[in-house]
Backbone:
């Protein structure tokens, strides 16, 4: 059970910017913790490009890109994106195919589609300006509780809580939380803690500080507790349980899948198939085959797909006649600018290199 000291229900902020009755954990010397952590951040924060701006559009782009992607990978994509689409208006006016093309390499393409839809909504419903109300921010396409809090606090310095992977780890150790952090009870405890900790003034600095602490000090393995500026407030440090926390629910086992695709090349052009499914809609890939032909594949490679492990096999095949509507020829020399799925781009590059 989480070691949280309950108090009488009070009126607390919610990520929607409204008040709601909910119990929050008590932290010893909360104000001192806030000041200590914010001061540490002022001396130790990494110089990241999205920390040099208060532009809500640029901050939103960085937050969407950083979902499930490491900082070092995001930085060049972030810079290229803002050079091409510097504001909501320029992004809203762009075709989805161009958006996907610039996004390729980051994966999880639904993020790019949602960002594109958000830009169009901001232009049509909010005059091209990000609304300041956290509830209106969260109502935008693809923006959840965390992202709304991040934009509200980093762009507008509003006292909105946020919980990402780094913050969840810090809070779980501060609380000595033994509930899985990806469970309903664990999430409830983490958000209650985040609400209790975010200051009325200086939320932008504090939220950045607690995220940075998780990234640099309160790391997943071998946390640097002796270098932590708030270890005196950490229950897990006091109990010697920091390295064993946080807990997560058991992982689902992966399902093995087989994917068979065609390699059809003619006069410097390759036959590709455009996807219509939810995950890869609008992207191109090698054409699917209903089954494996009685031949040795040109290439086999594995790639992960949610809770699956896919074995992709590529076979030399003639072009079907007639071509169905999702098939099209593309110049091999122009594939760099085509939004291809990452595993199929890798397969094409490997076959061509041979």
Residues:
């Amino acid at each position: 059970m989480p070691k949280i000291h309950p108090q009488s229900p009070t009126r607390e902020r919610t990520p929607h910017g409204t008040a709601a009755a909910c119990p929050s954990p008590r932290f010893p010397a909360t104000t001192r913790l806030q000041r200590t952590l914010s001061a540490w951040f002022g001396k130790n924060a990494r110089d990241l490009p999205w920390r040099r701006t208060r532009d809500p559009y640029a901050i939103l782009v960085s937050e969407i890109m950083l979902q499930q992607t490491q900082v070092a990978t995001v930085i060049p994509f972030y810079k290229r994106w803002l050079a091409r689409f510097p504001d909501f208006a320029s992004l809203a006016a762009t075709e989805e195919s161009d958006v996907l093309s610039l996004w390729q390499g980051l994966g999880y393409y639904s993020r790019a589609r949602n960002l594109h839809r958000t830009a169009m909504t901001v232009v049509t419903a909010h005059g091209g300006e990000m609304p300041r109300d956290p509830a209106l921010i969260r109502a935008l396409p693809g923006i959840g509780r965390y992202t709304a809090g991040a934009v509200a606090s980093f762009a507008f310095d509003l006292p909105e809580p946020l919980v990402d992977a780094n913050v969840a780890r810090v809070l779980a150790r501060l609380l000595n939380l033994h509930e899985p952090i990806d469970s309903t009870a664990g999430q409830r405890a983490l958000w209650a803690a985040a609400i209790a900790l975010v200051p009325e003034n200086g939320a932008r600095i504090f939220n950045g500080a607690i995220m940075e602490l998780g990234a640099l000090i309160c790391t997943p393995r071998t946390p640097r507790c002796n270098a932590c500026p708030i270890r005196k407030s950490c229950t897990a440090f006091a109990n010697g349980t920091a390295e064993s926390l946080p807990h997560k629910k058991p992982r689902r086992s992966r399902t093995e899948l087989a994917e068979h695709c065609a390699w059809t090349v003619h006069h410097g052009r390759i036959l590709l198939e455009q996807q219509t499914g939810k995950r890869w809609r609008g992207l191109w890939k090698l054409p699917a085959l209903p089954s494996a032909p009685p031949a040795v594949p040109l290439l086999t490679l594995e790639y992960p797909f949610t809770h699956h492990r896919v074995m992709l096999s590529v076979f030399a095949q003639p072009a079907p006649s007639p071509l169905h509507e999702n098939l099209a020829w593309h110049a091999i020399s122009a594939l760099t600018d085509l939004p291809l799925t990452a595993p199929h781009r890798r397969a094409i590059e490997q076959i061509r290199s041979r």
